[in-house]
Structures
1.
Amino acid sequence: MSREAHVRFDGSGEGKLLPATLHSQVGGGCWLWGVEHLLTIAAFGRRCGLSVSALRFYAECGLVVPVAVDDATGYRYYSEGQVAEASLVKRLRATEMPVEQIGRLLAADRAGRAWLFEAHAAGLEEHLEALRRSVGEVRGWLVTGEGSDPDHGWRVTAGALLAALGQVAFAVPGQGGRPELAGVLVEVRDGSLRMVATDSYRLAVRDLVVDEGAGELRALVGSSGLDELRLACSHARDTSVWLRQGTAGGTLTAAVDGQVVELGGAADGFPDYEQLLGGLPAGDRAVTARRPLVEAMAAVSSATASLTLRAGALEVAGDDILQSLPASWDGPPRQLLVNPGFVGEALAGLVGPDVVIEVSDALRPVVLRSADSGTFSVWTMPVRPSGA
């Protein structure tokens, strides 16, 4: 098209006029000079990284409309000022935003644009999380084999799972302990996940509320499985973890952030702790501040500490300490011996400012739990007095 050629803007309201010299108006249209300041659709597409077909589609949708169209040839022309907005449309489409939403975003002011995009981004995050779960589910199913059901599993938050496992891990026996106890038992109980650890002298139980789940789980997670899970979740504590186990007590796997970790296998040798707990008599209860009790246990340098419970007080005594802590106690005066290290580790895993202590007699397990939450409890055996 020559410099002198005229381009007719068809007057339909599509697009906007550039600052230019109006030559004349005929039949509701406008004649423009200055064609050399406009860009052809191909040149405009190169400037903003869009194909000709994409620009035609966006024009049909009313997103990026040419400022002028030659009535004779149908050639479309764009202005330099449209490059930024066309580039924005391109980026928005790359986020899979529908054209209708893009139209509303382009018509909004600056604050409105930001709000609309954040709403779209939140939807993308939810979709991405769903995709990750699906990928993890399939990977977990492939790892556990065709005998497992991909629709069965339990979903928990990575951070919550790690915290729960960490709370009970202190009770796992060290090297040289019984092999059937060398890990944390993970099982389903009454619609929640339960984590259990014991070294025969103390028992830690943590119930974890799950986001969703179905099916059975019962497996012993050893130290190597715990380490791998911590590593997999180290940068994804807010993401979801899907726990699954193959049929007939197969491998327990955790799918997290697209990675599948093998946690452990069958827990056939783990003791029936529920039968043991069910046979314990109900004890009397004391409530005291957790932090002072932690400090008192840490101050005991001897192998045993004496706990004396009486109305209004809990007395902690050792070879080099005698301290009375305020406490409520609803039973008769009672004294027992405990391992201060065992009690200190149990108290460290509890949450909240107060601890509940349940005691039935001097030779039966002492129960420690948070006053505000009953989802984590520790049973620790007292020390048998000399001559008892």
Note: The chain has three domains: 7-106, 131-265, 280-380.
2.
Amino acid sequence: MKRMNMFILIAVTLLSCGQDGDSTEEVETTKLLTTKTIEIEQQIDGQMVSRSVIIQAPAVSDAATKYPLVFAFHGRGGNNNHWVNTLSQFTDSGAFIGIYPQGHLNSWNLGPEPSTADDVAFVNTIVETLLTYTNVDSEKIFAIGSSNGAGMVNTLAAKTQHFKAIAPVASQLIASINISLQTKPVSIFQINGAQDDVIPIEGGERFGHSFFSAYESAQKWAVQFGCDLSPVETTIAGNASYIFSGCSDQAVVQYLRVENAGHGISGAYPQLWQHIWTFFSSR
């Protein structure tokens, strides 16, 4: 009987050690992305520059949940702090984790800008860093950009394959952004203010760039992605919406013309951010 008891004791001990080992391994392989600011080192004009990225995660994160990521790019002269309050209703509720990079010299390099940074490489490094975390959904990465930041998200859609959908706000495609045959279809939700006197909705030469008209910009994406070129036209809260469907890889291109808005669209269209997130979350 003593030998039997000893055998049971040894067996229980071994089982407990095995369970502890599994638990330790699980802790070591779980790496959660939480609210913080990270710094990305990048060489710009021969000097190493530290560039900040604000990460805004839910106050209470579920370790078992993989959260979508929403990048947001400020306009020229702006900063990444702007997005913390703008999108807090979504990050606080756990809809997504917000990723807010800072442009070098408060701008994104689209050519004739204050910054000469390689911003595509910068974003590539951010994405690589974020994908090392276990609570990130690599299949649901989205990007919002305002004004100069809208040009940045258009550039990222043309030159990378990170994003499921983008929302360029208060700007449209410029002639220098090269959409090529290698550009992967992504869903586009472009929003422009009909009264915009900074980047006119009809396009033209501004800030050293040649802008297409807002409608032509959406149409160019639709052509690139093989969409039906006869968009469905509807009215949303008195604003004209054009949806190009039937695109490759189930992408959708939508253009919303906010009639009473200037360059600051959210003031005239307060449901803007909710509308964008609804578009993203349906992809």
Note: Residues 1-27 have pLDDT under 50 and may be disordered.
3.
Amino acid sequence: MLTLATIGYEGATVQGFLAALEEARIEMLVDVRAVAMSRRPGFAKSRLAANLDEAGIEYLHLRGLGTPADGRAAARAGRHEKMREIFREHMTTPVAQADLETLVSIVKGGKRVALMCFEADPRHCHRSLVVEALAAHVTTEVRHLFPVEDDPD
């Protein structure tokens, strides 16, 4: 069976984030943020891709699998069911379906993939809904990864 991982970078350091990916032997990180920007140092698209490259991990941004603005607003307001409703509707769009097909091909190819978004808790993040949509096309075992906490020394 193929394995798929998910990870959020909320509260993480780049070092702890990369350590979790390396420990899980991830070969490709698929960024499923609609907007691949971040105020957290090292997690904006260009810097993240460079950090991953240094660790020997490929980076791919599938913007079409990101949550639309109204869904992000609902999530920030703690309205997770509304976010899920908005995202499921978004998944019917051509851009979302095209990026889902890209993801299906990558996962079927046997690469060790992790889906990434911001939220630490996968239950409150749309990446769990991406996994749900993927499951209609390919059977995977899902592992939710959590960034390694940095040693305070």
Note: The chain has one domain: 2-145.
4.
Amino acid sequence: MSPYKVVITDFGDADHSLEAGVLHGSGLDINLVRLQTRIPEELISHVGDADALIVQWATINREVIEAMTSCKVISRYGIGVDMVDLQAAGEHGIPVANVPDFCIEEVSDSTIGFIYDLSRRTVFLDRLVRAGGWGQSLPTQLWPPPRLSGQTLGIVGLGNIGRAVARKAGSLGLQVLGYDPYLGPEQARDLGVELVDLDDLLRRSDFVTLHCPLNDETRGLIDAPQLARMKPTACLINMARGPVVVQAALYEALANRTITAAALDVLEQEPPDPDDPLLHLDNIIVTPHASSGSVAAVLQLRRDTAQNVVDALNGKLPRSIVNRQALGWT
């Protein structure tokens, strides 16, 4: 019997010894192929005979999926799977697996950090000092800030990360609102979250943080009308995916002070164009899609992503399959 061909399409770290250890340590005969491309057209010639794909950011579209004749699983480094055509994978009987408990602590901690930074204007004060502005007055829109305790946090998306944010926010003295059409009132009460619709959340919140997946329901969820519903003193945090927010509308809202500030770990285009006007505003914090990072999180991610492949090649179900409905599974 020929060895199983497992293709890593792309990953930020050049080393893949940990994944290789999990795969080869399984006792399976594995031929591990490492690529470094996100472009579907460049993948097709390499994946036709693959038994499994391990994917970070590569676009696995219908054409890539239809080129594969023996793929048994697509395993994603991470939680979100918006780079994979789930419908096409389901039609071809290919389960798509993720790591649903990856980076819960890291992203929720980063969210709380953004709330602190936005509330206390930390980054903006740092910029002022570095520009030689010690002693100068800050714009009245930014200073003095309101006291953090007693303000309201609105969480859009109460999955694992959103729930962790809700738990941590309670210790800050924040009132917590939540919007998630898939969460029941009893679950929300257990989290200490008042479940509301999106419009109510936007209208009442001092901080709005996004933790929803990117799909047809959430693409462009926050556009000009939604930003206009927010308080002029409110701040927006996006920890989900860039296209959940219409970036042009966010630029206008920040430039016109429709809202006070924003903190973004994700953008519509990654990496961004250096001339993107959003990056030149003085009331925004941008980090490079890095909130998931920690030594422990990355080690867990690499092991669990490879283990999904081992399980599938052994004829078992990976622990988390995101396209069960497309596969006809319950």
Note: The radius of gyration is 22 Å.
